[in-house]
């Protein structure tokens, strides 16, 4: 599971409804580079769609340019997929794409904690 791929889908995908669910399900199975090889049945189960709806969604994601399909290149002859959200997917979390988040976390961690003592 790649949280980076899922974040990229949430932030940059133009997909809606079932297509978005399929993109998120694919991202959930992918590595940080966006490669995944779940079966259509597995994607359908994860996205809570029928296999036919899932096949249509995969096709729409492919036509929109958000998903590349490598036919029969996965284990046991399943398709291998790669999420393509521009160059955003390869940047998120890998090359400092989220530096503002990292900086704010560092600032929070480095702040001295105030301890309140109550004298009675």
Strand content: 5-15%
* Total helical segments: 6
Spatial ordering of strands, largest sheet: 1-3-2
Class based on secondary structure composition and strand pairing: mainly alpha
Largest sheet: 3 strands, antiparallel
- Helix and strand run: HHEHHEEHH
Overall spatial form = globular
What share of the residues lie within helices? 40-55%
Outline the structure in words:
This protein is mainly alpha-helical. Helices cover 51% and strands 8% of the residues. It has six helices and three strands; from the N terminus they run ααβααββαα. Strands 1-3-2 form a three-stranded antiparallel β-sheet. It starts with a helix and ends in a 10-residue tail after the last helix. Residues 90-118 have low confidence and may be disordered.
Map the helices and strands.
Blueprint: H1 3-12, H2 17-29, E1 35-36, H3 40-47, H4 51-64, E2 67-70, E3 80-83, H5 88-91, H6 99-110
Antiparallel strand pairs: 1-3, 2-3
Helix pairs in contact: 1-2, 2-3, 2-4, 3-4
Give me a quick take on this structure.
With 120 residues, the protein is mainly α.
Task: Name some characteristics of this structure.
120 residues; mainly alpha; 3-stranded antiparallel sheet; 3 strands; 8% strand; globular; disordered C terminus
């Amino acid at each position: 599971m790649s949280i980076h791929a899922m974040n990229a889908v949430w932030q940059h995908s133009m997909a809606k409804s079932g297509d978005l669910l399929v993109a998120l399900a694919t991202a959930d199975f992918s590595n940080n580079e966006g490669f995944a090889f779940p079966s259509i049945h597995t994607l359908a189960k994860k996205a809570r769609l029928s296999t036919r709806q899932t096949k249509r969604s995969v096709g729409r994601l492919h036509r929109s340019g958000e998903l590349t399909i490598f036919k029969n290149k996965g284990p046991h002859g399943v398709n291998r997929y790669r999420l393509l959200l521009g160059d955003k997917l390869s940047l998120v979390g890998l090359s400092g794409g989220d530096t503002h988040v990292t900086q704010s976390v560092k600032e929070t961690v480095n702040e001295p904690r105030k301890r309140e003592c109550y004298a009675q």
